[in-house]
Design a protein that fits this description.
By secondary structure, the protein is of the alpha+beta class. It has a single domain, classed as Heat Shock Protein 90. 36% of the residues lie in helices and 28% in strands. The chain is built from five helices and five strands, in the order βααββααββα. The chain has a five-stranded antiparallel β-sheet with strand order 1-2-3-5-4. Strand 2 and strand 3 form a beta hairpin. Helix 1 runs antiparallel to helix 2 and helix 2 packs antiparallel against helix 4. The longest helix is centred in the N-terminal third of the chain and has 22 residues. It is globular and about 45 Å long.
Length: 149
């Protein structure tokens, strides 16, 4: 299959019910590719983790907040960006430690960033306290890797 170039953006209220919408929207968009079920599930999972972080940690579940997702497909590379204009992360290094959570009362596992790192080829976090957080997740799909060889 020839690699494609395409993009989409979507914005929605920072409410927990929209996490499922985000997963389905991104999955529907990337399903146009020659993607394996494992790759699709991994991308859906990282979208879910990033969106949940934006809603719960970025906005403290304030429905006035807005989560933005953009997805680009470029030569078999999927680039997902999840953005919020919430409170930001004070210590990114600490936030990325396995099992660390700022919301233990919500039974949060603290594995969001770890899962993102494990399922994607790259993870970048840009944040500013009081201004928000941008999470960029990139994955080269197996069919694109095969095209390189």
């Amino acid at each position: 299959m020839k690699a494609q170039r395409n993009f989409m953006t979507v914005s929605f209220a920072a409410v927990s019910q929209n996490e499922a919408f985000a997963r389905v929207a991104v999955a529907s968009f990337i399903s146009q590719l020659d993607i394996t079920m494992d790759e699709l599930e991994e991308i859906k999972t990282v979208v879910s983790e990033a969106v949940t972080n934006a809603i719960i940690h970025g906005y403290d579940e304030n429905p006035e907040g807005v989560v933005h997702i953009s997805v680009q497909i470029n030569d078999g590379v999927v680039d997902v960006v999840v953005e919020d204009q919430g409170k930001g992360i004070e210590d990114v290094e600490q936030a990325m430690q396995p099992l660390y959570t700022t919301k233990p009362e919500l039974e949060r596992s603290g594995m969001g960033f770890t899962i993102m790192e494990n399922f994607m080829d790259s993870l970048e976090v840009a944040t500013a306290v009081g201004k928000g957080t941008t999470v960029r997740l990139t994955k080269r799909l197996s069919f694109a890797k095969a095209l390189q060889n």
